[in-house]
Specification:
Layout: H1 9-21, E1 27-29, H2 30-38, E2 48-53, H3 57-65, E3 71-73, E4 82-86, E5 92-100, E6 105-109, E7 114-118, E8 124-128, E9 131-135, H4 138-144, H5 152-165
Parallel strand pairs: 2-5
Antiparallel strand pairs: 1-2, 3-4, 4-5, 5-6, 6-7, 8-9
Length: 174
């Protein structure tokens, strides 16, 4: 059985509201993060990428289980700090777990190969379907959408962000 995942603006906002009701401090990333920064939906989305403190994971499970988003969707490269939950029908959420460090930076990844970045990277402000959301900051969204082999959606998203925020287009897109 093949499942076609789709994440509408209303789906994304519904999941974010459910998380807020359970005290989960989520930040929108990925494609919806880009569209939030742009203030409009520019393409279809198959999932909702979320950054959240690892300490909020239990509350996230409780919040999502009530809405049926309670299955792990194995992807190549999944790790304990980055994995996908889905509802088995069409909703898919790509989770990115981090831990705040005493110096104010955020730790993402393994102890052996840590990635740290400033907390400001997750303090962007955007809009999804007229609702304000916290999302990745524009320059970090560009960085994270070009840190791997580019996909068609990255070739779509990154130039729009760069144009809107006056950021240099990365060399990989010139």
């Amino acid at each position: 059985m093949t499942v076609d995942y789709a994440m509408t603006a209303q789906d994304a906002l519904g999941l974010l509201a459910r998380l807020a009701e359970h005290g989960v401090d989520a930040c929108v990333g990925g494609g919806w993060g880009v569209d939030a920064l742009l203030g409009e939906q520019t393409r279809e989305h198959s999932d909702l990428d979320l950054w959240l403190p690892a300490a909020d994971l239990e509350r996230l499970f409780v919040a999502f289980a009530a809405g049926g988003v309670d299955r792990v969707h194995p992807w190549p490269g999944d790790r304990p700090w980055n994995f996908v939950l889905h509802d088995g029908v069409r909703l898919r959420v790509d989770l990115h777990l981090y831990e705040p460090l005493p110096d104010g930076t955020l730790h993402y990844g393994s102890v052996l190969e840590p990635v740290t970045f400033p907390a400001e990277a997750l303090l962007g402000q955007g809009v999804i379907a007229g609702t304000e959301v916290r999302c990745e900051a524009p320059e970090w969204s560009v960085r994270w959408h070009t840190g791997y082999p580019l996909r068609d959606k990255d070739r779509h998203d990154v130039p729009l962000l760069c144009a809107r925020y006056g950021l240099d287009l990365p060399d990989t897109l010139r």
